[in-house]
Amino acid sequence: MSASSPRTAYLRGLRTALPFVIVVAPFGLLFGVVGTEAGLNIAQVMGFTVLVIAGASQFTALQLMADNAPTLIVVASALAVNLRMAMYSASLAPHLGSAPIWQRALIAYMNVDQTYALGHADYEARPDQSTAEKVAFFFGTATPIIPVWVGATALGIMVGEAIPPALGLDFAVPITFIALIAPALRTLAHVAAALTSVVMAITLAFLPWNLWLLAAGLAAMIVGAEVERRMEARR
């Protein structure tokens, strides 16, 4: 085996992703518990997790459903939260666009916050990797993340209210996103977008059906893009 090979890249991705299991597991457990408490049956909760496979939008949709929000609001809010996946895909395309279509289909399915963040960081740090190595690294990151997410949700369904509130499983949600977002705030545009989303979310928190989420996300993207445009113009 050479010093650099798909197998080496896969194992590196696997090792890099292992620490995220610490937050992915309680995140999945929490969704399993919350989903059943909201009145969904086992098939519905697992369908949510296996088909949507995006925790933030799942929690958003579930909360709105529990609040009896209009279907259009539920769908629009979930899609708005997941708009970041389109940006993730565009960011990964230069690195993985030449991979076989079946591999790209699997990558699209497993393209979640953790796998994207780890993959993109590795590709930027090792630009000379082959496409096969980049694909292998991505699959390596997904190996612990995806099964743990699905398995933890199933466990949350089974144990349900047996999990003591003192464990504070909900800590996993903010910690996951802090761990992913903080290292990515490397430019003024990133920081501006993040600050805009925080300010708008707090300012518009009074809006019903979590509409503040749509407004904050849209405003953050506009501000971030405008700051990036002005920085490029100055260069």
From TrEMBL:
The keyword DNA-binding does not apply. The chain crosses the membrane at residues 16-36, 42-62, 69-90, 135-159, 171-192, 198-225. Its main location: membrane. The keyword Cell membrane applies. GO terms for cellular component: plasma membrane. It holds the Pfam family AzlC. GO terms for biological process: L-valine transmembrane transport. It is a multi-pass membrane protein. It is found in: Cell membrane. Keywords: Cell membrane, Membrane, Transmembrane, Transmembrane helix, Transport. Belongs to the AzlC family. This is Putative branched-subunit amino acid permease.
